[in-house]
Q: What sequence folds into this?
């Protein structure tokens, strides 16, 4: 199978790329960073250097693929000018247009916990909207939305707080349980 992977060499995409290549699939990895081309090709995949903001690039890259793995890359969440909701909607629209125009029939969308909620999920509403946009594709496009909770590597950002204060302080409610997943 020819499979397109977004997310470049991130925590989830990298092990996915390795496994797909090992299983004999033709893998094309989208990255916005030309400096990653050599590392992508060293894995046995093909690098497609371009932007998820470029619908023509996405359409050309998706054309001829059997499946596409879509995800929304992290952005600078501390940038007060970033409209995160609009960012998710824009990438969702770009993905939908490129999938429809390219003829891809199988899509796996990395979403998030809470994306099934229409309201009350804070910044996760963007993932909800992206899923709704994807679900509006023609009926012959099979879509799987993966909604992980959190990953153990997310805990690394708490290390300075743990070292300096001896706690992990978050905005979860007292007694809330947050399941964590593993990514190789």
A:
């Amino acid at each position: 199978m020819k499979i397109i992977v977004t997310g470049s060499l991130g925590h989830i995409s990298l092990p996915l790329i390795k496994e797909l290549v090992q299983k004999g699939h033709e893998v094309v990895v989208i990255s916005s960073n030309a400096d990653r081309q050599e590392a992508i090709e060293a894995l046995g995949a093909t690098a497609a250097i371009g932007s998820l903001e470029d619908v023509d690039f996405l359409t050309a890259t998706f054309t001829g693929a059997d499946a596409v793995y879509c995800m929304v890359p992290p952005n600078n969440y501390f940038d007060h000018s970033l409209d995160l909701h609009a960012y998710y909607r824009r990438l969702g629209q770009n993905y939908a247009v490129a999938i429809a125009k390219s003829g891809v029939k199988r899509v796996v969308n990395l979403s998030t916990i809470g994306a099934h909620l229409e309201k009350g999920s804070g910044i996760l509403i963007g993932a909800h909207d992206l899923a709704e946009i994807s679900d509006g594709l023609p009926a012959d496009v099979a879509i799987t939305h993966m909604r992980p909770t959190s990953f153990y590597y997310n805990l690394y950002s708490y290390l300075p707080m743990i070292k300096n204060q001896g706690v992990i302080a978050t905005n979860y409610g007292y007694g809330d349980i947050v399941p964590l997943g593993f990514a190789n």
Q: What stands out?
A: Residues 9 and 162 are 28 Å apart (CA to CA). Helices lie at 13-22, 37-42, 55-62, 84-102, 125-135, 159-165. Residues 84-102 form the longest helix (19 residues).
